[in-house]
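Narrative summary of target 7.
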Amino acid sequence: MLVFRYDKTFEGLLSALFDAYTLHTFPDRLIGAGDPEPLFTERVHEIATDAAHAARVWRGLGKRLRSRARSMLVYAWHGEQEGSDELLLRCLRRIFDQDGGVVSDLADSDMKALHRLALQVSHERERLKQFVRLQKAADGTYFAAVTPEHNALPLALGYFTDRFADQRWLIYDRRRNYGYYYDGREAREVCIEDDRGMIADKLDDRFLAEEERRFQLLWKNYFRALAIPERLNEKQQRRMMPRRYWKHLTEME
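Modeled conformation, tokenized:
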């Protein structure tokens, strides 16, 4: 069994594909750094992530696929499902071997799975855009915690930088322990090791700006006054607004 070990990045996956064509052999398995080798492994090939090699593969995909189809590959990568990197490698190989039209072959189980995963990530991105609630902290920074099922925050970053371009904010993925801080000019990825108890589902009252506390109280009162208890349909509510987002929403307290 031939195994490729790589750094579990999209650029690393493209570098793995480049090496596979260079070696004229494709791996049976992909593993990350530190992962145990599968049983019956005969050889492990170490992939050195190379930006030039990855860019060459990406340009090759551009000649075979429309931009929407290439974006689908990126979305599927952010799905983070077990075995999705091997699924992507198989699909990429078929695209290069048989040209780009094969991405529409939904009779193929791999292509069908690729489309399904990309669609799930796309839906997660839209939910982030809909349900992220920024809270104003005492220092004037706006904060929101998220726990998306898929790693869709990077895909929604452009929306947030456009929508909230005039304020400082931090949107933090608690499930993956990283986020993006926007200083009014650019967004950069951050990982907070010592958060002094601030990084929670919602900011604690002691960290909130006074006007934010008043606004949240006003919003909760408005939400309760507007709701009609007799028409409450929690099943439909969960369908339209996944329950994992409720803990971040002021109105759901």
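The longest strand covers residues 2-6.
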